[in-house]
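[job 4471] stage=fold_predict status=RUNNING
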Amino acid sequence: MKAFEVIQQKLVELYRLEVSFVNPAVLQLSQQLDEYIVAIQKLKAAR
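[job 4471] inference complete, writing structure tokens
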């Protein structure tokens, strides 16, 4: 969970700097965060 929170915070900070969701760096972090969300959901569903 810690990695998820770190990426989430980086995404927020980067978006505030770039003010754009289509910035490549913002998109990359967003996609990485999406992967964590899917992994967490799969873990919860497997219980």
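[job 4471] summary: The radius of gyration is 12 Å.
[job 4471] exit 0
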